[in-house]
Design brief:
The chain has 16 helices and twelve strands. The chain folds into three domains: 119 residues, Gyrase A, domain 2, CATH 3.30.1360.120; 129 residues, Four Helix Bundle (Hemerythrin (Met), subunit A) (Up-down Bundle), CATH 1.20.120.430; 153 residues, P-loop containing nucleotide triphosphate hydrolases (Rossmann fold), CATH 3.40.50. The strands form two sheets. Strands 3-4-5-2-1-6 form a six-stranded mixed beta sheet, with helices on one face. By secondary structure, the chain is an alpha/beta fold. The protein is flat.
Length: 452
């Protein structure tokens, strides 16, 4: 997929019935294919009402065709967009006919993400913008949609490129100083190299903070409800979801498998997993559910450890702590506050006290959830980011911190200072795809949907 220059075709709309379905073709020269399809050439960037016929001359569909001549197209190649009626079988017939008539031009079905990959390879967008397209399609909340749209428009890339440019100018200063070793300290001080480095460090930290918020918007939070049987985990899930998504009975062990539900809190996607009550059991079905509960805990971003005034922990909290991923917080919550009469007993048990039955304390719990996962509550100017972006920013920050140490050492350290700046610059360049291995590039675009 990385190197082929063949024209490609795919259905660009989602599976299923719709009023309109779109078939998209992209290639270096689509003139012959267009003429074979409609017996005429199409004027660029104009709509044309045309009829597509099969090999026997029978009408397949009357559709709207729009031709975009290279390089003024999404992919940077010639693009032909066919807006058909949206029946799945009809779209298959349109695809089949296009492939028949495009056989001599070696028209082939596109791989997942190949249209966007070609846009990237033809410098229509950078890699961060390409990823934002997939994130915009997959967005799980309004805030995520707006964040992905800002990234697609280039806000994220612009911030990265500005930082790269500042590091470049600093590298030029440092490396030119290496030619005049007797003047290096005076020259760097007069050029305020350390001050400029401090400014780079501050901007990089700000970008990291924004990216961390963006990853929360993109991926959401894996929130696991854990605890002993019958402490109200399913009731809390139903309260947070606002509907009866889990069966609730007074019988311990009612929930035998994980129950998943997605909600949003202040625009942040929260993927809640209600687990089977954690206990020793001889029931094979319940034991399997408990095993899956532990699997969910090991992958959680946040675990709510639910207790009530009658439940004994018996070391369960410590057992959960041993299974958690690094940096995963545990929030202990005391349920059934409506059954607790003593204010003293209330305050002794837990800092978070709720009643899943009445809703008392649930709003405070929601705010605590966002606080623990690191959400600062600001959606203004938010961008959507991925784990890959955070890794690049973290590594760049490490190199900037080391360059700061070498800059403070003065003589005999400027070459190392310059090298650390170079490495930081490389990691930032990987975010927009300026310096990225082909195997990683292929992996990124393989996650796109076909037709995009």
């Amino acid at each position: 997929m990385m190197t082929r220059k063949l024209p490609i075709i795919a259905v660009a709309t989602a599976p299923g019935k719709a009023g309109v379905g779109i078939v998209r073709i992209s290639g270096q020269n689509l003139g012959a294919i267009t003429k074979a399809l409609f017996q005429k050439q199409l004027s660029p960037r104009k709509t044309h009402l045309v009829t597509l016929r099969d090999a026997d001359g029978q009408t397949v569909d009357q559709l709207i065709a729009i031709y975009f001549a290279a390089p003024a197209s999404f992919t940077g190649e010639d693009v032909l967009e066919l807006q058909c009626h949206g029946g799945p079988q009809l779209l298959e017939l349109v695809m089949k006919r296009c492939l028949e008539l495009g056989k001599e031009d070696e028209l082939v079905i596109a791989e997942p993400g190949e249209f966007t990959l070609r846009a990237y390879l033809n410098n229509k967008i950078d890699l961060a913008q390409a990823e934002a397209i997939a994130d915009l399609i997959d967005a799980q909340s309004e805030a995520a949609v707006r964040g992905a749209a800002r990234s697609l428009q280039g806000a994220f890339s612009e911030a990265i490129n500005e930082l790269i440019e500042e590091i470049t100018q600093l590298r030029i200063l440092v490396e030119s100083t290496l030619d005049f070793p007797e003047e290096e300290i005076e020259f760097l001080e007069s050029a305020q190299a350390r001050k400029r480095l401090a400014a780079v460090k501050e901007k990089l930290q700000s970008l990291r903070n924004g990216a961390e918020q963006g990853k929360i918007l993109r991926d959401g939070i894996q929130l696991v409800l854990a605890g002993a049987p019958n402490v109200g985990k399913s009731s809390l899930l139903n309260r947070l979801a606002g509907e009866e998504v889990a069966i609730v009975t007074p019988i311990a062990g009612t929930t035998r498998d994980r129950v998943k539900e997605s909600i949003t809190i202040e625009g942040v996607p929260i993927h809640i997993i209600d687990t089977a009550g954690l206990r020793d059991t001889n029931d094979l079905v319940e034991a399997k559910g408990i095993e899956r509960s532990w699997d969910a805990i090991r992958l959680a971003d946040l675990v709510i450890f639910l207790t009530d005034h009658n439940s004994g922990e018996d070391g369960l909290k410590e057992q959960i702590l041993c299974e958690l991923p690094p940096k995963c917080p545990v929030l202990e919550v005391l349920n059934k506050s409506d059954l607790i009469s003593s204010d003293l007993e209330r305050t002794k048990k837990s800092p978070i006290l709720i009643s899943a039955k009445t809703g008392d304390g649930v709003e405070a719990l929601k705010k605590k959830i966002l606080e623990l996962v690191g959400w600062n509550g600001s959606q203004e100017g938010a961008i959507v980011a991925r784990r890959r972006h955070l890794d690049c920013l973290e590594r760049a920050s490490e190199h900037i911190a080391r360059s700061e140490q070498f800059a403070a050492n003065g003589n005999n350290s400027l070459e190392l200072f310059a090298e650390e700046l170079f490495l930081a610059q490389n990691h930032l360049g990987q975010m927009t795809g300026k310096l990225l291995p082909d195997d990683l590039l292929g992996k990124i675009f393989s996650q796109f949907c076909i037709g995009k």
